[in-house]
Design brief:
Blueprint (H helix, E strand, L loop, with lengths): L9 H18 L5 H8 L1 H18 L2 H15 L3 H9 L10 E10 L7 H11 L3 E5 L6 H7 L5 E4 L6 E4 L3 E6 H8 L14 E7 L5 E8 L6 H15 L8 E5 L7 H10 L2 E2 L11 H5 L15 E5 L4 E7 L10 E8 L1
Parallel strand pairs: 1-2, 7-8
Antiparallel strand pairs: 1-12, 2-4, 3-4, 5-6, 6-7, 8-10, 9-10, 11-12
Helix pairs in contact: 1-3, 1-4, 3-4, 6-7, 8-9, 9-10
InterPro entries: Endo/exonu/phosph_ase_sf (IPR036691), Endo/exonuclease/phosphatase (IPR005135)
Protein name: Endonuclease/exonuclease/phosphatase family protein
GO molecular function, one term: endonuclease activity
Length: 338
């Protein structure tokens, strides 16, 4: 038998080149913030690379297949630390006694949500002690009214749509922006004027101590310079409080393994408890545009997070069902030694 090598395949070679290009785009993130946007949608990049690898295998072109495989490994590199942390941070068992538990839910209601009844029902069924809301305005404004029957305490910032509802007593509350401006000297940098909509509340826990909870809605990462400025201001705002028992929850518009989210992990001084939990876009965005009967591929990125101080240990992290919003709600159960 005479061995005849398979002729080159332009399609397979093109697939290999495409895989390499995707890997390069992912790894260029440290050089320019625009490339970091590719890490924000890392799951889509990985799926595309996997599809290109499958194409070369179907065509039985082994050299392009090896190139695609190497590119896929390179694309997976930035998310490896997140995977490792998600395994080690999986729910822990609390001490047998003398503990305080707290369940917090966060949800971007979406101002164009037309299913206020469903959203309110889902949040009530989640049975959290504290609920952090974002975009609690427009067509989703009725959700807050329905939740007040279950959550008698409320904190809001009149200029923003971020709110906090609680079963536990709210001792004091206010706008994060006001808190920071009041503490700044007159000669402070005038250009740092971008503040994320955020509300804070000091909540009395069951053991008699208090913890500060913050509801935040960061802007989109494009233009990233605005989000960077919001992150810097929010980090400065958080330093106004004791962060050991602090909890910060909301829509941060940043997903792993982006450098934007890594900088939040670094600057907030808190531990992020939500890892590899896709929350956007939910089916609600399809329903809003008359696509309710068509199941769009959804939730390919996780931009809704809960950060907590070192006094808290994670018991569980859950993603809620579709509420008619373009986000899914997130619920985190925490405990601390009293």
């Amino acid at each position: 038998m005479i061995f005849r090598p398979r002729p080159p395949s332009p399609l397979a070679n093109l697939a290999a080149a495409g895989s390499v290009m995707l890997a390069v785009l992912v790894w260029l993130a440290p050089l320019w913030s625009g490339f970091d946007l590719f890490r924000q949608v890392w799951a889509l990049i990985a799926i595309a690379a996997l599809g290109l690898l499958a194409l070369t295998l179907i065509l039985r072109r082994w050299r392009p297949a090896l190139i695609c495989l190497a590119a896929l490994v390179a694309i997976s590199g930035p998310v490896a630390p997140e995977v490792a942390r998600s395994i080690t941070d999986n729910g822990r068992t609390p001490y047998p006694d003398a503990i305080t538990t707290l369940t917090i839910a966060t949800h971007n209601l979406w101002g164009r949500n037309e299913a206020a009844n469903r959203a309110a029902a889902v949040l009530i069924e989640m049975d959290a002690d504290v609920v952090a809301l974002q975009e609690a305005f427009g067509e989703s404004g009725d959700v807050t009214d329905r939740l007040r029957a279950v959550y008698p305490f409320e904190a809001e910032c009149t200029r923003h749509s971020s709110r906090i509802l609680s079963r536990l007593e709210i001792v004091e509350s206010g706008c994060m922006q006001d808190l920071l401006i009041a503490s700044r000297p007159a000669e402070y940098e005038w250009w740092r004027h971008q503040f994320p909509p955020s509300t804070w509340a000091r909540i009395r826990l069951e053991d008699g101590t208090t913890a500060v909870v913050v509801s935040v809605h960061m802007t989109w990462p494009d233009p990233l310079s605005v989000q960077n400025e919001q992150r810097q201001n929010l980090a400065e705002q958080l330093r106004q409080f004791e962060r050991n028992t602090m909890i910060v929850a909301g829509d941060f518009n940043a997903a792993a393994p982006s450098l934007a989210l890594a900088r939040m992990d670094r600057d907030f001084g808190l531990e992020r408890r939500t890892r590899l939990l896709a929350t956007w876009p939910s089916q609600g965005i399809g329903q809003r545009f008359g696509l309710g009967g068509f199941r769009l591929p959804t939730m390919f990125t996780g931009i809704d997070h809960v950060f907590a101080g070192e006094a808290w240990t994670t018991l569980s992290v859950e993603r809620g069902p579709n509420t008619g919003s373009d986000h899914r709600p997130v619920m985190v159960r925490l405990w601390k030694v009293s």
